[in-house]
Amino acid sequence: MRFKGAGHMVIVALRILPFASHVYALDLDVNSQESIKNAGSTATYNMMTWYKENGTDNPGFISRSWWTGAALFLACLNYWHATNDTTYNEEVSIGMQHQGGAGGDYMPSWAVGIGNDDQMFWGLAAITAAEYKFPNRPSGDTWLTLAQGVFNDQKDPNGKGWDTTICGGGLRWQKELWQSGYTMKNAVSNGGFFMLAARLAWFTQEKGYATWAEKVWDWSTSVNLVNDTTWAVADSVRKGTGGPDGCSLPDNTRWTYNYGTYVSGAAYMYAYTNDTKWLDITNSLVDSIFTTFCLPEHGGVITDWTCEAVGQCYKDANGPLFKGLTVSWLADIALMIPSLKDKILAKLQISAEGAAKSCTGGNQNLCGNRWYGGYDEQNSMENAISGSQMMSAVMLKFLDSSSKPVSTATGGNGTSDPSAGTGQRSGPAPFAPITTADRAGAGILAVLFVGCMIGGVVFLFMDP
Ligand SMILES: *[C@@H]1O[C@H](CO)[C@@H](O)[C@H](O)[C@H]1NC(C)=O
Ligand SMILES: *[C@@H]1O[C@H](CO)[C@@H](O)[C@H](O)[C@H]1NC(C)=O
Ligand SMILES: *[C@@H]1O[C@H](CO)[C@@H](O)[C@H](O)[C@H]1NC(C)=O
């Protein structure tokens, strides 16, 4: 929390506020650790105002789109990892464990019609927590258990995961027949499962996960979801003609996060195996992201131009999240493979500078969707999440090997219940119900939050 002054300053600031008319860009010097920290603090504070919008007995549940909760918690984990600011950790920890549900596999009873990609993002949030040594809750499922729960469920055809009935393998987008995406096998579900398997291999140092990662990769390249000659990543395939294995030709719509899942998985596979095959793949896909999404006409700033260029990203709650996830994975890749740091950092800095100049909304540095050409009036929870992710990612310059995602060989907590996600947990479910203590904790956080808000006002007042 940045507020340090005495009470009367707060009052002065509140009186002054209505007269403040100057529009500030999010103040950012990408070569100053303090400046990035301040920008990240503002962006993350703005993001969390959305989370508090609807007080809930179901912590971590975002009503308009369930997986957005995973994206938000990923942003919080990255913010904490980049800055050591623990302001939001308790809420993150409560919500992330709670959404895991009774099976410990992010298939909670209240989230109806979950897609493989939705579930996967929660699994990524859990493995990120494990890799960053985010403290486990005092009881209930550990972060490792929750990540394994998702993996176990997705590798199992009975869990409506891995499926060989069409296209010779792969995960369907949706798990349920009644959903239109059921006919599709999409890049983000499969790339995300690949990444989760690779990260579990790295974290646990167990070969079984790497075998699965190889299998997903081989399938993805065999149906040209990933083209390992041009390094283009497609969006989806389905049953049909034109492609291999009774599969249609890929839908070639380009999205940053499809590339991001595969490149991140490849980086963890390199870290786990030391096989230069994976280093070459990582390099090729990193370059492909830059040539595809960081275009000269946008000043080199990363864009999901498929929707951004036509101002349509806001129409669904997903698109604005993609590039935020992608920049966060690029930063992690550079921590896993330090030889890629200079190349990645240079691009992140360009995008962060663009984002800072665009995050000028509402006199409180709200972020819109596009990170070039100034504020585009598209303040939303999703755009706030990506803004926060960008500021955390550009902290890369100041992170060294001590911030590298850990494995159980380097201090990661390997406590887990390996039966999560198998549908046959032994003994009582280790799922911890929301306790009075948790509720009290949330109350304290609400008070802290008001403090934080006042701090934010003072910050605005003191901003030169
Ligand atoms: C809060 O609730 C309102 C009304 O149900 C809904 O429109 C809005 O999307 C919710 N906000 C979040 C962040 O879930
Ligand atoms: C790992 O997590 C478990 C479960 O929460 C906990 O009991 C244990 O103390 C943790 N170990 C370390 C070294 O933090
Ligand atoms: C990969 O290299 C690291 C660092 O030299 C080493 O600790 C690890 O055991 C190697 N892993 C394998 C699978 O060879």
List the helices and strands and how they pair.
Elements: H1 7-16, H2 33-51, H3 68-83, H4 89-98, H5 116-131, H6 143-154, E1 184-186, H7 187-204, H8 207-222, E2 236-238, H9 256-273, H10 276-293, H11 305-308, H12 319-336, H13 341-358, H14 381-393, H15 436-462
Antiparallel strand pairs: 1-2
Bound molecules: 2-acetamido-2-deoxy-beta-D-glucopyranose (NAG) (3 copies).
Keywords:
464 residues; mainly alpha; two-stranded antiparallel sheet; disordered C terminus; binds 2-acetamido-2-deoxy-beta-D-glucopyranose
Question: How would you describe this structure to a colleague?
Answer:
With 464 residues, this protein is mainly α. Helices cover 50% and strands 1% of the residues. It has 15 helices and 2 strands. A two-stranded antiparallel sheet has the order 1-2. Helix 1 (7-16) crosses helix 15 (436-462), helix 7 (187-204) packs parallel to helix 9 and helix 12 packs antiparallel against helix 13. The longest helix has 27 residues, at 436-462. The radius of gyration is 21 Å and the shape is globular. It starts with 6 loop residues before the first helix and ends with a helix. The relative contact order is 0.16. The model is unreliable at 1-23 and 427-464 (pLDDT under 50). Bound molecules: 2-acetamido-2-deoxy-beta-D-glucopyranose (3 copies). The site of one 2-acetamido-2-deoxy-beta-D-glucopyranose has 4 residues, from loops.
